[in-house]
Amino acid sequence: MIQGDSMARTSLNFAHAETLAPLLGLLGLFEDPNYMSANSPAEAITGRRFRASQAVPFAANLALVLYNVTGSWQVQVLHNERVVPQPMCGDATVCDWEMFKAAQAKHLRMDYHSICTPAATASANDASDEL
């Protein structure tokens, strides 16, 4: 993603709500402080942070904006065009890129470069054609 002076200025990826909702969860957005169940008190249920109608409404979107601030890479998260606090960075609205990546590492069990390089993507597509 960050490769000297030749990095792309914009990278856009599109998905369905069914993939956006789990991603919001992995980022810790809208996470409730307590576990919710059918037996949770009414106050906890009505006051919950996660509401599907707000988290993934029609045309829901998530943007990760990368900034170079005096030689330090920072990331900002926008959900439905609004800046949101990042739990992995103490609810700051801009987070150090290395801290952001480290917080997500626990969710990633695969090597990013082996999956996301054009050669790996092409060979993965070729393998899926054989199925």
UniProtKB/TrEMBL annotation:
Protein name per the record: Multiple inositol polyphosphate phosphatase 1
Main location: membrane
Catalytic activity annotation: 1D-myo-inositol 1,2,4,5,6-pentakisphosphate + H2O = 1D-myo-inositol 1,2,5,6-tetrakisphosphate + phosphate; 1D-myo-inositol 1,2,5,6-tetrakisphosphate + H2O = 1D-myo-inositol 1,2,6-trisphosphate + phosphate; (2R)-2,3-bisphosphoglycerate + H2O = (2R)-2-phosphoglycerate + phosphate; 1D-myo-inositol hexakisphosphate + H2O = 1D-myo-inositol 1,2,4,5,6-pentakisphosphate + phosphate
Compartment(s) where it occurs, according to its Swiss-Prot or TrEMBL record: Membrane
PANTHER family listed in its UniProt record: MULTIPLE INOSITOL POLYPHOSPHATE PHOSPHATASE 1, MULTIPLE INOSITOL POLYPHOSPHATE PHOSPHATASE-RELATED
EC number: 3.1.3.62, 3.1.3.80
Entry annotated with the keyword Disulfide bond: no
Organism of origin: Eutreptiella gymnastica
